Amino acid sequence: MILLIRAGFLAFLAALALFCARGLDFKSDITNFMPDAESADLALLAGYMTRSDLARTVFLTVGPRADGAGGIADAVMQEKIATAIVALAERLRTHPEVEWLRTAPEDQELEKVWQVYFPRRFGLVSIDPESEIPALLAPAALATTARQAVEALASPSGSLVKRTLPADPLGFFGRILDRMRAETPTLEVRRGVFFSSDGWGVLMLVTKSSSFATAQQEPFLREIAAAFEQANAAAGGGLVMDMSAVARFAVAAEQAMLADVGWIIGASFLSVAALFLAFFRSLTRFLIATLPMIAGMVVPGALGILLFERIDGLTIAFGASLLGATIDYPTHLLNHFAMLGGERREVVSRIAASIS
Question: What is the pTM of this model?
Fold first, then answer.
Protein backbone atom coordinates (compact mmCIF):
# COMPACT_ATOMS: atom_id res chain seq x y z
CA MET A 1 0.00 0.00 0.00
CA ILE A 2 2.81 2.39 0.89
CA LEU A 3 4.50 1.66 -2.42
CA LEU A 4 1.28 2.50 -4.26
CA ILE A 5 0.99 5.80 -2.40
CA ARG A 6 4.57 6.68 -3.23
CA ALA A 7 4.14 5.74 -6.87
CA GLY A 8 0.90 7.70 -7.07
CA PHE A 9 2.54 10.77 -5.51
CA LEU A 10 5.46 10.63 -7.93
CA ALA A 11 3.12 10.14 -10.89
CA PHE A 12 1.05 13.12 -9.71
CA LEU A 13 4.15 15.34 -9.53
CA ALA A 14 5.28 14.17 -12.97
CA ALA A 15 1.87 14.95 -14.45
CA LEU A 16 1.87 18.42 -12.89
CA ALA A 17 5.41 19.04 -14.16
CA LEU A 18 4.37 18.18 -17.73
CA PHE A 19 1.31 20.41 -17.40
CA CYS A 20 3.43 23.31 -16.14
CA ALA A 21 5.97 22.88 -18.92
CA ARG A 22 3.26 23.69 -21.46
CA GLY A 23 2.33 26.97 -19.79
CA LEU A 24 5.64 28.32 -18.54
CA ASP A 25 6.76 31.51 -20.27
CA PHE A 26 10.21 32.76 -19.40
CA LYS A 27 9.51 36.00 -21.24
CA SER A 28 8.71 38.91 -18.92
CA ASP A 29 6.13 41.55 -19.82
CA ILE A 30 6.06 44.53 -17.47
CA THR A 31 2.47 45.24 -18.52
CA ASN A 32 1.42 42.24 -16.41
CA PHE A 33 2.35 44.32 -13.37
CA MET A 34 0.53 47.46 -14.51
CA PRO A 35 -2.83 48.51 -12.98
CA ASP A 36 -5.89 46.97 -14.61
CA ALA A 37 -9.03 48.70 -15.84
CA GLU A 38 -10.58 48.74 -12.37
CA SER A 39 -8.38 51.69 -11.45
CA ALA A 40 -9.21 54.13 -14.24
CA ASP A 41 -6.55 56.79 -13.60
CA LEU A 42 -3.70 54.34 -13.06
CA ALA A 43 -4.83 52.24 -16.02
CA LEU A 44 -4.77 55.35 -18.22
CA LEU A 45 -1.24 56.16 -17.06
CA ALA A 46 -0.14 52.58 -17.66
CA GLY A 47 -1.60 52.75 -21.16
CA TYR A 48 0.40 55.87 -21.96
CA MET A 49 3.57 54.25 -20.64
CA THR A 50 3.21 51.10 -22.70
CA ARG A 51 1.05 51.91 -25.73
CA SER A 52 1.62 55.58 -26.59
CA ASP A 53 3.36 56.53 -29.84
CA LEU A 54 6.22 58.03 -27.84
CA ALA A 55 6.83 54.79 -25.93
CA ARG A 56 6.72 52.75 -29.15
CA THR A 57 8.91 55.09 -31.21
CA VAL A 58 12.32 53.90 -32.41
CA PHE A 59 14.93 56.41 -33.60
CA LEU A 60 17.75 55.12 -35.80
CA THR A 61 20.69 57.36 -36.67
CA VAL A 62 23.35 56.44 -39.21
CA GLY A 63 26.73 58.10 -39.45
CA PRO A 64 30.41 57.47 -40.26
CA ARG A 65 32.67 55.34 -38.12
CA ALA A 66 35.00 57.23 -35.81
CA ASP A 67 37.95 56.08 -37.93
CA GLY A 68 36.13 56.39 -41.24
CA ALA A 69 37.47 58.35 -44.19
CA GLY A 70 35.88 61.74 -44.86
CA GLY A 71 34.26 64.16 -42.44
CA ILE A 72 30.63 64.25 -41.48
CA ALA A 73 30.04 67.26 -43.70
CA ASP A 74 31.70 65.58 -46.67
CA ALA A 75 29.31 65.34 -49.63
CA VAL A 76 30.34 61.78 -50.45
CA MET A 77 29.73 60.67 -46.87
CA GLN A 78 26.30 62.35 -46.85
CA GLU A 79 25.41 60.46 -50.02
CA LYS A 80 26.49 57.16 -48.42
CA ILE A 81 24.43 57.89 -45.32
CA ALA A 82 21.37 58.81 -47.38
CA THR A 83 21.75 55.63 -49.45
CA ALA A 84 21.95 53.51 -46.30
CA ILE A 85 18.90 55.22 -44.75
CA VAL A 86 16.82 54.60 -47.88
CA ALA A 87 17.90 50.94 -48.07
CA LEU A 88 17.19 50.47 -44.37
CA ALA A 89 13.73 52.00 -44.76
CA GLU A 90 12.87 49.82 -47.75
CA ARG A 91 13.55 46.64 -45.78
CA LEU A 92 11.83 47.70 -42.58
CA ARG A 93 8.79 49.44 -44.09
CA THR A 94 7.02 46.16 -44.93
CA HIS A 95 7.86 44.44 -41.63
CA PRO A 96 4.64 43.35 -39.84
CA GLU A 97 5.83 44.99 -36.61
CA VAL A 98 6.12 48.49 -38.17
CA GLU A 99 3.07 50.75 -37.84
CA TRP A 100 4.61 53.69 -39.67
CA LEU A 101 8.06 54.79 -40.78
CA ARG A 102 9.51 58.17 -41.79
CA THR A 103 12.76 59.14 -43.52
CA ALA A 104 11.61 62.58 -44.75
CA PRO A 105 8.64 64.95 -44.33
CA GLU A 106 5.41 63.79 -45.92
CA ASP A 107 3.31 65.96 -48.18
CA GLN A 108 0.58 66.31 -45.53
CA GLU A 109 3.04 67.81 -43.04
CA LEU A 110 4.41 70.25 -45.60
CA GLU A 111 0.85 71.19 -46.52
CA LYS A 112 0.11 72.29 -42.96
CA VAL A 113 3.22 74.50 -42.86
CA TRP A 114 2.31 75.98 -46.23
CA GLN A 115 -1.24 76.85 -45.17
CA VAL A 116 0.01 78.78 -42.14
CA TYR A 117 3.05 80.62 -43.47
CA PHE A 118 2.72 80.98 -47.24
CA PRO A 119 -0.09 83.60 -47.20
CA ARG A 120 2.04 85.64 -44.76
CA ARG A 121 5.37 85.33 -46.59
CA PHE A 122 5.74 89.02 -47.48
CA GLY A 123 5.45 90.07 -43.86
CA LEU A 124 7.76 87.33 -42.57
CA VAL A 125 10.47 87.20 -45.22
CA SER A 126 12.85 89.55 -43.41
CA ILE A 127 13.32 91.29 -40.10
CA ASP A 128 15.32 94.02 -41.92
CA PRO A 129 13.43 94.50 -45.22
CA GLU A 130 15.08 97.86 -46.13
CA SER A 131 18.48 96.26 -46.65
CA GLU A 132 17.76 92.56 -47.22
CA ILE A 133 15.00 92.73 -49.86
CA PRO A 134 17.03 94.87 -52.34
CA ALA A 135 19.86 92.37 -51.95
CA LEU A 136 17.50 89.56 -52.95
CA LEU A 137 16.89 91.30 -56.31
CA ALA A 138 20.56 91.51 -57.30
CA PRO A 139 21.51 89.42 -60.38
CA ALA A 140 23.77 87.06 -58.41
CA ALA A 141 21.05 86.50 -55.82
CA LEU A 142 18.48 85.77 -58.56
CA ALA A 143 20.82 83.21 -60.15
CA THR A 144 21.32 81.50 -56.79
CA THR A 145 17.56 81.44 -56.22
CA ALA A 146 16.98 79.85 -59.64
CA ARG A 147 19.57 77.15 -58.98
CA GLN A 148 18.03 76.39 -55.57
CA ALA A 149 14.60 76.13 -57.17
CA VAL A 150 15.85 73.47 -59.59
CA GLU A 151 17.34 71.47 -56.72
CA ALA A 152 14.16 71.81 -54.68
CA LEU A 153 12.03 70.46 -57.52
CA ALA A 154 14.03 67.23 -57.38
CA SER A 155 13.70 66.87 -53.60
CA PRO A 156 11.00 64.95 -51.66
CA SER A 157 9.20 68.28 -51.18
CA GLY A 158 9.01 68.78 -54.94
CA SER A 159 5.21 68.64 -54.99
CA LEU A 160 5.06 71.59 -52.60
CA VAL A 161 7.70 73.51 -54.58
CA LYS A 162 5.68 73.09 -57.79
CA ARG A 163 2.70 74.59 -56.01
CA THR A 164 4.53 77.55 -54.50
CA LEU A 165 7.11 78.43 -57.18
CA PRO A 166 4.78 80.30 -59.59
CA ALA A 167 3.44 82.47 -56.74
CA ASP A 168 6.80 82.77 -54.97
CA PRO A 169 9.57 82.89 -57.62
CA LEU A 170 11.94 84.78 -55.28
CA GLY A 171 11.82 82.02 -52.68
CA PHE A 172 10.44 84.10 -49.82
CA PHE A 173 8.71 81.06 -48.33
CA GLY A 174 11.96 79.08 -48.40
CA ARG A 175 13.77 81.89 -46.59
CA ILE A 176 11.12 81.81 -43.86
CA LEU A 177 11.63 78.06 -43.44
CA ASP A 178 15.42 78.48 -43.33
CA ARG A 179 15.11 81.09 -40.60
CA MET A 180 12.78 78.87 -38.61
CA ARG A 181 15.26 76.01 -38.80
CA ALA A 182 18.12 78.28 -37.73
CA GLU A 183 16.21 79.66 -34.75
CA THR A 184 14.85 76.26 -33.69
CA PRO A 185 17.41 73.55 -34.55
CA THR A 186 15.61 70.48 -35.80
CA LEU A 187 15.92 67.83 -38.47
CA GLU A 188 17.02 68.96 -41.91
CA VAL A 189 16.31 67.32 -45.25
CA ARG A 190 19.43 66.52 -47.25
CA ARG A 191 19.67 64.14 -50.17
CA GLY A 192 16.00 63.33 -49.67
CA VAL A 193 16.23 62.08 -46.05
CA PHE A 194 16.26 63.53 -42.54
CA PHE A 195 19.63 64.66 -41.18
CA SER A 196 20.40 65.86 -37.67
CA SER A 197 22.25 69.12 -37.06
CA ASP A 198 25.51 67.17 -36.57
CA GLY A 199 25.15 65.39 -39.91
CA TRP A 200 23.76 61.95 -39.00
CA GLY A 201 20.97 60.45 -41.08
CA VAL A 202 17.77 59.82 -39.14
CA LEU A 203 15.04 57.21 -39.54
CA MET A 204 12.08 57.07 -37.16
CA LEU A 205 9.41 54.41 -36.84
CA VAL A 206 6.65 53.29 -34.47
CA THR A 207 6.05 49.65 -33.63
CA LYS A 208 2.64 48.02 -33.42
CA SER A 209 3.43 46.12 -30.23
CA SER A 210 4.14 47.65 -26.85
CA SER A 211 7.79 48.41 -26.20
CA PHE A 212 7.60 46.03 -23.23
CA ALA A 213 6.24 43.13 -25.30
CA THR A 214 9.68 41.55 -25.57
CA ALA A 215 8.45 38.46 -27.39
CA GLN A 216 7.77 40.71 -30.39
CA GLN A 217 10.41 43.37 -29.81
CA GLU A 218 13.44 41.07 -29.45
CA PRO A 219 13.21 39.54 -32.96
CA PHE A 220 12.35 42.96 -34.40
CA LEU A 221 15.50 44.49 -32.92
CA ARG A 222 17.51 41.66 -34.47
CA GLU A 223 15.82 42.40 -37.80
CA ILE A 224 16.84 46.07 -37.51
CA ALA A 225 20.47 45.07 -36.91
CA ALA A 226 20.43 42.68 -39.88
CA ALA A 227 18.78 45.31 -42.09
CA PHE A 228 21.48 47.84 -41.22
CA GLU A 229 24.27 45.40 -41.99
CA GLN A 230 22.74 44.87 -45.41
CA ALA A 231 22.19 48.61 -45.97
CA ASN A 232 25.74 49.42 -44.84
CA ALA A 233 27.17 46.89 -47.27
CA ALA A 234 25.03 48.30 -50.09
CA ALA A 235 26.30 51.82 -49.32
CA GLY A 236 29.94 50.72 -49.40
CA GLY A 237 30.54 50.23 -45.67
CA GLY A 238 32.17 52.53 -43.16
CA LEU A 239 28.92 53.42 -41.34
CA VAL A 240 27.58 52.79 -37.84
CA MET A 241 24.06 52.88 -36.47
CA ASP A 242 22.81 54.16 -33.12
CA MET A 243 19.38 53.33 -31.73
CA SER A 244 17.17 55.04 -29.18
CA ALA A 245 14.11 53.02 -28.10
CA VAL A 246 12.35 51.94 -24.92
CA ALA A 247 12.15 48.42 -26.36
CA ARG A 248 15.94 48.18 -26.43
CA PHE A 249 16.15 48.73 -22.67
CA ALA A 250 13.22 46.39 -21.98
CA VAL A 251 14.83 43.56 -23.96
CA ALA A 252 18.26 44.15 -22.39
CA ALA A 253 16.75 44.16 -18.88
CA GLU A 254 14.92 40.89 -19.53
CA GLN A 255 18.01 39.18 -20.93
CA ALA A 256 20.10 40.31 -17.96
CA MET A 257 17.43 39.13 -15.52
CA LEU A 258 17.12 35.69 -17.12
CA ALA A 259 20.89 35.29 -17.19
CA ASP A 260 21.10 36.21 -13.49
CA VAL A 261 18.25 33.87 -12.58
CA GLY A 262 19.86 30.94 -14.39
CA TRP A 263 23.26 31.60 -12.84
CA ILE A 264 21.87 32.05 -9.31
CA ILE A 265 19.64 28.96 -9.49
CA GLY A 266 22.47 26.83 -10.86
CA ALA A 267 25.03 28.03 -8.32
CA SER A 268 22.57 27.68 -5.44
CA PHE A 269 21.51 24.17 -6.43
CA LEU A 270 25.07 22.93 -6.86
CA SER A 271 26.25 24.40 -3.57
CA VAL A 272 23.29 23.02 -1.59
CA ALA A 273 23.70 19.61 -3.27
CA ALA A 274 27.42 19.54 -2.46
CA LEU A 275 26.83 20.37 1.21
CA PHE A 276 23.96 17.87 1.50
CA LEU A 277 25.90 15.02 -0.08
CA ALA A 278 29.00 15.85 1.97
CA PHE A 279 27.03 15.60 5.19
CA PHE A 280 24.61 12.73 4.50
CA ARG A 281 26.69 10.85 1.88
CA SER A 282 23.54 9.51 0.26
CA LEU A 283 22.18 10.35 -3.18
CA THR A 284 18.88 8.65 -2.30
CA ARG A 285 18.34 10.94 0.68
CA PHE A 286 19.19 13.96 -1.47
CA LEU A 287 16.58 12.95 -4.05
CA ILE A 288 14.03 12.50 -1.26
CA ALA A 289 14.88 15.95 0.11
CA THR A 290 14.24 17.57 -3.27
CA LEU A 291 10.68 16.20 -3.52
CA PRO A 292 9.15 18.97 -1.33
CA MET A 293 10.96 21.57 -3.42
CA ILE A 294 9.64 20.04 -6.64
CA ALA A 295 6.14 19.90 -5.19
CA GLY A 296 6.46 23.53 -4.10
CA MET A 297 7.25 24.42 -7.68
CA VAL A 298 4.78 22.40 -9.72
CA VAL A 299 1.67 22.60 -7.50
CA PRO A 300 1.38 26.42 -7.34
CA GLY A 301 2.64 26.58 -10.93
CA ALA A 302 -0.20 24.36 -12.13
CA LEU A 303 -2.73 26.41 -10.14
CA GLY A 304 -1.37 29.62 -11.63
CA ILE A 305 -1.67 28.28 -15.17
CA LEU A 306 -5.22 27.08 -14.52
CA LEU A 307 -6.27 30.48 -13.19
CA PHE A 308 -4.24 32.83 -15.42
CA GLU A 309 -3.32 30.61 -18.42
CA ARG A 310 0.40 31.44 -18.14
CA ILE A 311 3.13 32.27 -15.63
CA ASP A 312 5.34 35.27 -16.26
CA GLY A 313 9.12 35.08 -15.96
CA LEU A 314 9.16 37.61 -13.12
CA THR A 315 6.66 35.47 -11.21
CA ILE A 316 8.97 32.47 -11.59
CA ALA A 317 11.87 34.56 -10.29
CA PHE A 318 9.92 35.68 -7.21
CA GLY A 319 8.69 32.15 -6.51
CA ALA A 320 12.12 30.60 -6.94
CA SER A 321 13.51 32.80 -4.17
CA LEU A 322 11.05 31.19 -1.71
CA LEU A 323 11.59 27.56 -2.70
CA GLY A 324 14.91 27.20 -0.89
CA ALA A 325 13.12 27.14 2.44
CA THR A 326 11.34 23.89 1.54
CA ILE A 327 14.53 21.82 1.76
CA ASP A 328 14.83 22.70 5.46
CA TYR A 329 11.98 20.37 6.41
CA PRO A 330 13.30 17.11 4.93
CA THR A 331 16.78 18.09 6.15
CA HIS A 332 15.42 18.44 9.69
CA LEU A 333 13.81 15.00 9.42
CA LEU A 334 16.92 13.35 7.99
CA ASN A 335 19.07 14.88 10.72
CA HIS A 336 17.01 13.04 13.32
CA PHE A 337 17.43 9.76 11.46
CA ALA A 338 21.17 10.26 11.05
CA MET A 339 21.97 11.48 14.55
CA LEU A 340 19.31 9.92 16.82
CA GLY A 341 18.15 6.92 14.83
CA GLY A 342 14.87 5.17 15.58
CA GLU A 343 11.95 3.88 13.60
CA ARG A 344 10.68 6.10 10.83
CA ARG A 345 7.15 6.40 12.23
CA GLU A 346 8.46 7.16 15.69
CA VAL A 347 10.79 9.91 14.38
CA VAL A 348 8.09 11.44 12.19
CA SER A 349 5.58 11.49 15.05
CA ARG A 350 8.19 13.05 17.35
CA ILE A 351 9.03 16.00 15.09
CA ALA A 352 5.72 16.31 13.23
CA ALA A 353 4.76 19.47 15.15
CA SER A 354 7.98 21.28 14.24
CA ILE A 355 7.85 20.51 10.51
CA SER A 356 4.11 20.89 9.96
Answer: 0.60
